[in-house]
């Protein structure tokens, strides 16, 4: 099944399918794009819409305004509705099911009247180190900087005034879902990035809830933590319906009608697992965009706590090891923009896809070990390497050869380096086994380049394909369809294998021994050079 092909080749009866609501709609708020995907009865995408947006760095905090959230959602939905109208000559009045996904973690705090108490603090902020360290020690469980509970406790440590009025804490997906349905709930996967989940019960870990309440007693919080957090729902459970007010928030034109069944809101990690059919044990996926992260569904618990590894869940509630790196392809994008500007100055105009493909393909001819060149892609802090801020850097050893091929290989290596550090913990320290690893995201659009280098970085076969062609927005549409169409008792894994991905084609690349040895050599120099990155933060 190829989703993009289906969009380009509408069946004759698709207008009737849309009018009758035999569709599912998924909307995902990513770091740089809000995207909507409408799927038909076979789960293939039949229409898409999108809206570009960017976070803002305000008062040393990465944030998006709530005004930008709603203007972006409305623009995205309008683009989707226009695509439906253009392709099928009908209005998008309803859909069979709807789901919302977004970037995980962060801090959205509201008072009892539903008013935002502080600007939205996104996952990208790394100013919660003191809180994360103390909570990890208290719980005996790794609490990363970006988790919602770390943001909350850091606010407690800072003595922030708004805590006395705090009534509700949620994620971006949870916030949008709340406004669309009136229900304060989260899917299990998204909830697991706010506070640890007890795999046995599917809810928040009650021991840790009690420990947190004891820790903050008398320090300004008016409610118990369990009363502040959204309710947890596994994939497939009903999560409310689109209200009249919610329909107008999405579609101010008044065409979209209320009453649409909604699935639990999920985080982008969970929708990435669904979109790559990676919810079964010993499967995994790597997503590379603004950030880069790997999700590995575990056979069992890890032997001990590792600060490099987050433990979250699939949307169905299975334990997942997550290696999350704050910095992904953004610095590569900046270099591509510089080369495009230089080409334009020479009078050579090329579209961005041609620029990227030319640069990426050159990397295949670069020195396997980076040839004495080194790069750090740290636009923001990187917890895996204990850096609270970042400074993008490029440096080289005297006598090294500065050529385009090795320069680009070094930049691609840099985008994968922190991921490798985390994967070493799983593969070497914990002996985690993988049956398959799937890669998706913008880094892999140029066929056979980043895929080959990633295979070398983790010394594991890496597959790409059309499974995630429409990304997390398609993943949450599939979860919406799962809620609406699954058979009684059917698992998410079975639904994906029998109803969604049957017959899907993959292209798999095995690690090349020379590339593996070269990446290993690069990593030794990368780790040795980390103090240079630290010094740049301290002195600039």
TrEMBL record:
Residues in Carbohydrate kinase FGGY N-terminal domain copies: 24-248
This protein's UniProt keywords: Carbohydrate metabolism, Kinase, Transferase, Xylose metabolism
Biological process according to GO: D-xylose metabolic process
InterPro entries attached to this UniProt entry: ATPase_NBD, FGGY_C, FGGY_Carb_Kinase, FGGY_N
Database matches in Pfam families: FGGY_C, FGGY_N
One MF term in the entry's GO annotations: kinase activity
Domain Carbohydrate kinase FGGY C-terminal positions: 285-482
Superkingdom, taxonomy of origin: Bacteria
Family as reported in the entry's similarity comment: Belongs to the FGGY kinase family.
Official protein name in the record: Sugar (Pentulose or hexulose) kinase
Species in which this protein is naturally found: Actinoplanes teichomyceticus
Top-level taxonomy: Bacteria, Bacillati, Actinomycetota, Actinomycetes, Micromonosporales
